[in-house]
């Protein structure tokens, strides 16, 4: 459930970057002489996360909204083929993929 759909996978990666950045900043307290370096490195991770959140927000506004035939909830598709954000059913905008399931 946590990583279903391309949009949620990218958002989860951005959240992970925030936690890594904060962790790097806290490591700076162990070596006070290197604190500035760890703070700058941690801030770069957090700023990268902000950039990813902005980028995925822009992609999300242009993503196609469809109703999942399995769980009947509205979800967004990024690209031609994606998973439902709720039930992980494979969804496609391409008619030739209709009805096909993959177990990847």
From TrEMBL:
InterPro entries, alphabetized: UPF0295 (IPR020912)
Transmembrane segments annotated in the record for this chain: 12-31, 37-56
Taxonomic superkingdom: Bacteria
Keywords from the UniProt entry: Cell membrane, Membrane, Transmembrane, Transmembrane helix
Pfam families in alphabetical order: DUF2614 (PF11023)
Protein name (record): Zinc-ribbon containing domain-containing protein
Organism: Lihuaxuella thermophila
Lineage: Bacteria, Bacillati, Bacillota, Bacilli, Bacillales
